[in-house]
Amino acid sequence: MSKCPFSMAFTFLGIARKKPKMDSLLEQSKRIHGKMVIDDREISRQLDIISLSEEDLKLVKLIQPLIIQKMDDIVQQFYGNITKQSNLLAIITRHSTVERLQGTLKTHIQELFNGEIDEEFVKKRIRIAHAHVKVGLETKWYMCAFQDLFSSIVAILDKHIENRTDLIGAIMVCSKLLNFEQQLVLEAYEQEHQRIRQVQEETKQKVNTAVQQAVESLAAVSEETSASVQELSAQTDHIMHFAKRGSNLAIASEERSIKGKGLVENQQESMDSIRDRMNKILQDSEDLQNVSKKIQDIVGMITSIADQTNLLALNAAIEAARAGEYGKGFSVVAGEIRKLADQTKQSISGVSALVAQTDTQVSHVSQSVQSIHSLIESGNQYVSQTVECFDEILEAMCQTKEQNQAIEKELEMFVKTLAEISEASSEIAYSTDSLNQTTNELM
């Protein structure tokens, strides 16, 4: 049957039965190597107060084989109690696993009973404290777990150490060792919490400073915004007034343009009527000229007949003279005919002169009518252009009216937006005051 590797140590502890009486644990521990190297005066004072010495560490080293043999029981007991607490189990599952932490605890306990306390020992305990703070483990749960660990160790020692004096000595040494570890961890806990509080305080100070600056900036911005909104509101009122006035002017201009266009169109109709009448006058003048020409032709014909009649009367007078006494009566008639022909010729000459004068006047009238006709045509062109201009003006007035109405609507929306901005600015000012008050309360 193979020998237990810890049988010699168990013999030292008085576990083996029916053996010769052995030295006490204290005597046996003197033959074990222990190490205590601490340069920190504060830690050395802590060790002195609890009377944890290098001799105690030798005894701890002597107990280590028993602790290692019962390690699984210790660890199972430790995490069995912890996992019953839902909050502690939640911390474990959030950051690691039970199996992984069991392995870590075994290594930690074994190193705890190495019988050595040095700077590395202290640093490891500080790292443990920082890890506990990081995962959010409160000190009360750490102390509960450590008490459970101490209870498990005491139970093992009580079961395997028969000598009462040795048992009390072993328990005292373990109590000192675990107490020292708790001191280191709890102090590191407190230092880490203090560091975190300091960081939080510094952060709070920075936040407060930033908030104060933001509050001041917000207050300034709020005041500037409020002033700008008021100024914009006043300017908008003026613009709104001008826009409405522009709309009214556009409407009035539109109405006047419509009226002016109507007048121009009426004038164009009058010009067209005048043109038609002038055309009629021109036509009548042309007809009158034609009649004058015909009269001239008739006058010419009558003049020719009068000349011929006068010539015939002269010939008749000559023949009557030749006839002597018989031709006297005919000679008188011929003379009368000549007189009548001369009178007719003279009358026709007057008529011809009147006709010529009438023809001249008709020509002048025709020329005047032609000039008036040209002026009327030119006037009609100007009137047509004026109508087109009125159409363009009317269209421009309609567009201006629509644009002014659109501007009015946009300005109304702008005024509404300004009112919302003003309200938001007031809310910002109120929120700024509340934030400032809250920040001061936090300080």
Question: What does the model show?
Answer:
With 443 residues, the chain is mainly α. It folds into two domains: 7-160, Globin-like, CATH 1.10.490; 227-423, Methyl-accepting chemotaxis protein (Helix Hairpins). 88% of the residues lie in helices and 1% in strands. The protein has eleven helices and two strands; from the N terminus they run ααβαααααβαααα. The chain has helices at 7-12, 25-29, 41-50, 54-69, 71-82, 86-95, 98-112, 119-135, 139-160, 164-323, 328-442; strands at 35-36, 116-117. Strands 1-2 form a two-stranded parallel sheet. Helix 5 (71-82) runs antiparallel to helix 9. The model is unreliable at 1-12 and 14-18 (pLDDT under 50).
Short description:
By secondary structure, the chain is an all-alpha fold.
Strand order of the largest sheet: 1-2
Q: Quaternary status of these chains?
A: single chain
Q: What is the CATH topology assignment of the largest domain?
A: Helix Hairpins
Strand percentage lies at: under 5%
What is the second-level CATH architecture of the largest domain? Answer: Orthogonal Bundle
Average per-residue pLDDT, rounded, comes to 82
The percent range for helix content is over 70%
Outline the biggest β-sheet. 2 strands, parallel
Shape: rod-shaped
**End-to-end gap:** 74 Å
CATH class of the largest domain equals Mainly Alpha
Low-confidence region ranges: 1-12, 14-18
Structural class: mainly alpha
The H-and-E topology, N to C, reads as: HHEHHHHHEHHHH
Q: Give me the CATH superfamily of the largest domain.
A: Methyl-accepting chemotaxis protein
What is the radius of gyration computed over CA atoms, rounded to a whole number of angstroms? 70 Å
Number of separate helices: 11
Provide the domain count. Answer: 2
Q: What is the number of beta strands? A: 2
